[in-house]
Amino acid sequence: MNPDVIVIGAGAIGTSIGYQLARAGAKVMIVDRGQVGREATGASAGMIMAVHGRSTPVPLVALASESARLFAALAEELKLRTGMDIGYRRVGRLRVAFDEATEHQLRLERGWQVDHGAIVSWLDPASALDLEPALNPTVRAAIYYADEYQLLPVAFAQALSRAAADLGAIVREGAAVDRLLIEGDRVTGVAVGDERVHADEVVIANGSWAGGWSDPLGLPIPIRPMRGQLVALRTLGTALRNVIDAGDGYALTKPDGSTIVGTTVEDAGFDARPTASGVEGLLKLAPQLAPRLADATFSGAWAGLRPGTPDGMPLIGRLPRWRGVLLAAGHFRQGILLAPITGELVADLVARRRPRLSLEAFDPGRFLVRAA
Question: What are the structural domains of the chain?
Answer without folding.
Answer: 5-84+152-222+311-371 (3.50.50.60), 91-147+224-308 (3.30.9.10)
